[in-house]
């Protein structure tokens, strides 16, 4: 179970969520769930530009996550697709943060169908990379970034494990290490391919595996999983131990 918590300051939180439970009430819920031995974490998304994505806000939130023993944290920025939600957000910004209205107007000037901020103005306005900063904070406070994946035991269990490994590697290479975008994209494509593969990788012959249309960037990680059911790359980046829910 996860709860969305994005603002440590209660006055600010009530501006954007006037009829919702408070930040502290949500942290209390996480704590109670964890005390009962239930998996529970925090989604810090969307982190509002220049309001929720400040280092102080994130530090405060991560400290509370650590105190309540949150099992994981995920961070992300604000997506504003054209329409009612965007209009309402701009109305709130205009009323409560008029000094930020021009920045918001520029950030979302493109009216992109996906709602992502404009690339040019993101750079020009020094918009915080909420995923990278959140990831760094997760390491500082020793809270896993991402919810561990639960995979039911079935004949394709191993395929799902390999798919999850590839997806996490692609994330690290593209969002954190800033390696080749093409390399990360290809690894992610193979992750999706294996997620939907109908044959059990473990029971396939080498010849059969070689016929799967996989990219060369993924093959070393896949072969390592076939041999040892582990990923040294993820171990080196301290991502392996919290990748999957461990059965009690």
Overview of this protein structure:
With 248 residues, this protein is mainly α. Helix 3 (55-67) links the parallel strand 2 (41-47) and strand 3 (73-77). The chain has 2 domains: 2-140, Transcription Regulator spoIIAA, CATH 3.30.750; 157-236, DNA polymerase, domain 1. It is built from 12 helices and 3 strands.
The percentage helix is 40-55%
Q: Return residue spans where pLDDT drops below 50 for at least 5 consecutive residues.
A: none
Which secondary-structure class do the elements indicate? mainly alpha
Query: How far is the first residue's CA from the last residue's CA?
Result: 17 Å
Q: N-to-C SSE series?
A: EHHEHEHHHHHHHHH
Kindly report the spatial arrangement of strands forming the biggest sheet.
1-2-3
How many separate helices?
12
Features:
3 strands, 248 residues, single chain, mainly alpha, DNA polymerase, domain 1, globular, Transcription Regulator spoIIAA
């Amino acid at each position: 179970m996860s709860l969305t918590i994005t603002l440590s300051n209660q006055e600010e939180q009530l501006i954007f969520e006037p009829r919702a439970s408070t930040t502290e009430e949500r942290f209390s819920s996480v704590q109670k769930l964890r005390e009962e031995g239930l998996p529970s974490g925090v989604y810090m998304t969307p982190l509002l530009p220049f309001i929720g994505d400040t280092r102080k806000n994130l530090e405060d939130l991560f400290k509370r996550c650590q105190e309540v023993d949150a099992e994981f944290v995920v961070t992300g920025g604000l997506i504003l697709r054209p329409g009612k939600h965007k209009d309402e957000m701009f109305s709130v910004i205009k009323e409560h943060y008029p000094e930020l209205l021009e920045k918001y107007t520029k950030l979302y000037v493109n009216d992109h169908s996906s709602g992502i901020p404009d690339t040019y103005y993101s750079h020009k306005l020094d918009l915080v990379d909420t995923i990278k900063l959140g990831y760094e904070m997760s390491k500082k406070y020793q809270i896993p970034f991402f919810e561990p994946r639960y995979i039911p035991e079935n004949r394709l269990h191993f395929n799902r494990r390999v798919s999850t490994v590839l997806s996490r590697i692609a994330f690290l290479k593209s969002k954190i290490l800033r390696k080749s975008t093409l390399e990360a994209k290809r690894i992610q494509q193979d992750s999706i391919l294996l997620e939907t593969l109908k044959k059990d990788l473990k029971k396939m012959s080498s010849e059969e595996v070689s016929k799967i249309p996989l990219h060369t960037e993924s093959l070393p990680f896949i072969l390592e999983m076939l041999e040892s059911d582990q990923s040294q790359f993820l171990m080196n980046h301290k991502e392996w131990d919290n990748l999957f829910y461990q059965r009690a």
